Amino acid sequence: MASALRMVLDRNGFGEPSLAEEADEVLDVIGAKAQAFDLVLMAFSPADAVDVALVRVLRRVRSPIRLALYGALEAEDLADASPLVGAAAYIDLASLTRIAPQARALLGAPCTVAHILATARTPASLSRRWAIAIYGATPGDPIPRARLDHDHRSLN
Length: 156
What we know:
Blueprint (H helix, E strand, L loop, with lengths): L1 H10 L11 H10 L6 E5 L5 H12 L5 E6 L17 E4 L6 H9 L5 H7 L8 H8 L9 H4 L8
Parallel strand pairs: 1-2, 2-3
């Protein structure tokens, strides 16, 4: 899937993306060249706690990066998506043609992890289903305090 994603982004004018296999590798790459990245596309698997750890770190540092998850899940497939607070989009890979337009839309929107946390508003870039699953609110609405509270289990 990574090679298909790389090809789609490159062919649509995004240049050759940097790829990382593990969350630690992503953090190393972002940490070394934070200003060079506007968007992180992260494959998401609900069984992978590493994904959640990466999102947690991006929240803690109030990252100026846009975070989009991708995969082939439905929001209903997740028992609890609240650990993903900070994500601006979920790109369904059922259609590779959606990747480039959604990436362009994200880059044109103020939906960085830092912005989402500072405004406490659910990103308008999320579908209604994913917004409710992650933020407990519909796109554009205030994020419930329980999702933003630093003592809440999803933000620790």
